[in-house]
Amino acid sequence: IQASTAQNQLFDLGLPGRQLGFQLTEATGQVLGLAALLLALFFLSPLIVAQMGQALIQHGGLVREFTVAPNVNPSEGGLPYHEWFIEFDKLPNDFSAFRNALEEVMMNKNIYYNDLIKGNVLQPLKIRQVKKGGFNEYMKSQGKLGGQNKIPKLSNERKVAEGLENFINAK
After folding, report:
1. Greatest CA separation found in the chain?
2. How many other C-beta atoms lie within 10 A of the C-beta of residue 150?
3. Among 5, 17, 130, 133, whose CB has the most other CB atoms within 10 angstroms?
4. What b-and-e string marks burial along 99-120, b requiring 16 or more CB atoms within 10 Å of the CB?
5. Contact criterion met (CB below 8 Å) for 88 and 64
6. Rounded to two decimals, what is the model's pTM?
């Protein structure tokens, strides 16, 4: 609800993202890349669960838990991207097709994300497969297993993402 309210306030202020223009230069690229990534995450937040569900319907699979975080300065270099950490109860029939379907749904449902991908401000999303029980192990390692503690579905920082690095499936 907060994201919807904030989104409506932005529209009320006459600031729809598609009408804002900027020139991406080497000097400002990192700052604008971060701003664009956070803007895309902000507008994705109300839609993210439904969009993943749509991709799962197309390709099978069951998700136990997930979180999404920006990767603003990828260690491998290149443009920033959304990094999805997903623990599956059942893997999609075709993992690559699932990733592509999720990307397509995100681009179709969110014009801001679409513009950032097509404008080469962000690279396509990446999925990191968390091992079975990995989210619970992570929460336990943080002293937050049980009670009212929950994994954020969407974050604009990398604390949870970095904590989950120890619980990624080895391929």
Report:
1. 47
2. 9
3. 130
4. bbbbbbbbbebbebbbbbbeee
5. yes
6. 0.72
